[in-house]
Amino acid sequence: MIRILQFGRIGQVGQELLAQAPAHDVVLETVERDDLDLTDAAALERFLDRAAPFDALVNAAAYTAVDRAESESGLAHALNAEAPRLMAKACAARGVPLLHISTDYVFDGTRTGAYRETDRANPQSVYGWTKLAGEEAVLGAHDRNVVLRTAWVFSRGGQNFVRTMLRLAREREVLRVVDDQRGCPTPACDIADALLRVAVRITRGAESGPQGVFHFCGDTACTWADFAEATLEEGARHGITARVERIPTTDYPTPAKRPANSVLDCSRITSVHGIAPAPWRSRLPDHVDALVKSL
Ligand SMILES: NC(=O)c1ccc[n+]([C@@H]2O[C@H](COP(=O)([O-])OP(=O)(O)OC[C@H]3O[C@@H](n4cnc5c(N)ncnc54)[C@H](OP(=O)(O)O)[C@@H]3O)[C@@H](O)[C@H]2O)c1
Q1: Do the domain assignments include residue 192?
Q2: What's the gap in Å between 53 CA and the centre of ligand 1?
Q3: Residue range 228-248: average pLDDT?
Q4: Which of 14, 124, 129, 233 is the most buried (most CB within 10 A)?
């Protein structure tokens, strides 16, 4: 059994980690916001000093409100950069790895193909900058640490794009959705599975370069409008009849700028850890079924 300390219990990825840990022979010690506010640096340091021994730490907590971060940069930085820095420091002192989640929004979107781990990050938003600062702090602290960059996360329970489309489809006949930003939808269950597999391999001492940055996302790139259409296709089984109108980003201004292309190349995690990109389209039906019930 491997013992992992996990921050962020009730987020999209956090819940899936909890559900899947037993299948990986992992015992999770989870911490949520009510136990510890991660923006309180002194409390976090105290907590980490006193924590019982663990084999790895997984950080699934983050400030994820991309638009609100533009006006709450201090809070976003505390959670996305400073807290991971303190986690990384504590892990380095104990000699255990930290697995941290980051985002496709560290890229500026100007590349034509899929982004590789070696491509230059150049965030376009406060959220992206704070996540990049978190990555740098984690990777600089210990050479066994892992940053898993993922994208467009959806789950059966959390706040996400699929839930928003289903809710709006109940209120409107036409959903106007951006059709010039491309990325890869990623089910949270597959992120949790990937993280646990990597954590187990690292703590058991897999030899060939298991650390550093890895990209992990859904296996097929699409636009937000494509993703909305796929969601409504599944929603039709529940009587949803709304349709998508494809619009350009210029018709849907947001406080935070998003990359036009944030497709991630996942070949490194496949070759190093044997983990294939997530089959998001085939996961969508049961996610829609679950989300429709909780709208
Ligand atoms: N969502 C996406 O589309 C997306 C895309 C790319 C990358 N990512 C990355 O993937 C990771 C997981 O995302 P997610 O979608 O699972 O996030 P999420 O559902 O928003 O969950 C975030 C978690 O952080 C916790 N948290 C927030 N503020 C906190 C605080 N002050 N103290 C302690 N805990 C706090 C939340 O607790 P409460 O529920 O109590 O607030 C929640 O458990 C993040 O690193 C995110 O940046 C997400």
Answers
A1: yes
A2: 25
A3: 97
A4: 14
Tell me the pLDDT tens digit for each residue of 185-220.
999 999 999 999 999 999 987 655 578 999 999 999
CATH number of the domain bearing residue 74: 3.40.50.720
Q: Average pLDDT for residues 285-289, to the nearest whole number?
A: 98
Question: Under the phi-then-psi rule, with left for phi > 0, alpha for psi from -120 to 50, and beta for the rest, what region is 95?
Answer: left
Sign of the dihedral through C-alpha 35, 39, 40, 45: positive
Q: Residue 102: phi, psi to the nearest 5? A: -130, -165
Q: Which atom of ligand 1 is nearest to the CA of 153?
A: 3
**What's the mean pLDDT in 161-171?**
97
CB-ligand 1 contact for 38 (6 Å cutoff): yes
Q: Which of 33, 47, 106, 214 to mutate to test the pocket of ligand 1 (most atoms within 8 A of CB)?
A: 33
Beta bridge partners, 177, equal 246
Q: Report which protein residue has its CA nearest ligand 1's atom 35.
A: 33
DSSP state, residue 228? H
Q: Helix 126-141 and helix 83-94: axis angle, to 10°?
A: 10
Q: Which residue has the higher pLDDT, 135 or 1?
A: 135
User: Containing domain of residue 127, as a range?
Assistant: 2-160+185-217
Domain count, the chain: 1
155 lines ligand 1 (CB under 6 A): no
Structural contact between residues 71 and 123, judged by C-beta atoms closer than 8 angstroms: no
